[in-house]
Each structure stands twice: as C-alpha cells, then as structure tokens.
Amino acid sequence: MKKGLIQVYTGEGKGKTTAAVGQAIRARGRNQKVLFAQFLKNKEGSGEIAILEQLGIKVIAGGGKYRVFPLEKLPQKKKEEVKSDLNHLLERIKKEIERKEYDLLILDEINVALHAHLVEEGAILDFLRAKPSSLEIVLTGRGAPPSLSRMAHLVSEIIKTKHPYDQGIGTRIGIDY
C-alpha cells in the first residue's frame, strides 16, 4: 500500500488550481480514483470541471453562491451562509473519504476559506491527521496557514511576478476559467 502525502499549493501567483487539475488528470490517467472538491466556487462556468467529469473524476463544490471578493466585504449574514455551506461540503467530503474509494483528494481553494475564517483551521488539521494512510491530498489557494504548511510533505509557493490583471486585462474564457 502506498503512503499518501499532503501537498499545498499557495501564494499570490496564478496556477494553483491549474496545478491541482493537472495532478487530478495525471492520477486519473493511471486509473486512480479522484475526488475534486471546490471551496468558494460553483461547478458552473468553469472549463476544467467539464473535462474532469468527462474523465470520471467526481467534482463537488460549495460556498460559491456569493461571488464577492475580497471576502472581507461579504455581509455578515451571507458570510454565515457561506460558512454553513462550506461545513456541509466538508461533511460531504468526509463521508466520501470514509468509503476509502479514493486515491487522491483535491481541496481546491480551501486555503482561501481558511484565511477568511469560513472553515475552522482545527477541523481541517484534524481531517488531515485522520485521513486514510494511502490517500494523497492536495490543498490549494492563497494564504495557507503556517500550521498547514508544517503538516504538509510538499509546499509550493507560487509567486506573481507579472499578471494581466495588473495591465487591466480581465479574465478570459478557456484561459482563466
């Protein structure tokens, strides 16, 4: 039985979700079962979701009902709704993982949810400690807490040196989503 590691992709640069999508495709290409969980996103309107599902990768999402960034500007009532939605998503992930069918779990944008205090850091650390030993877990998003980085076996910090947004270029279909 292989040992599943914990990987973190964080930082201000572009490409964290893209790296996780690549990891998911690579695992699926080796007939591994993958669960791709998106925090603070909807399944609709994202180009990678369609292809992941076509490849037989299970995708679940939560907390994307309110697309307000920065999250600090989210009204308190809506913030509580997002917290509830993300807690339900985390419980759903736990139920999926309990079946021990998966080789790889992606927690996309979980670091952002942690940084915004929409998910309890202790709950994620406990989840990681209790994971099946063979399960590989990838956590993405800006602002990974130091405790998560200490627990991880691999941490990649993606640095922005230049970005189209800084030049007034907005998001583009097929490139950014």
Automatic annotation (TrEMBL):
Q: Which organism is it from?
A: marine sediment metagenome
A GO biological process held by the record = cobalamin biosynthetic process
Q: What is this protein called?
A: Cob(I)yrinic acid a,c-diamide adenosyltransferase
According to the UniProt entry, its GO molecular function terms are:
ATP binding; corrinoid adenosyltransferase activity
The record ties this protein, via InterPro entries, to: CblAdoTrfase_CobA, P-loop_NTPase
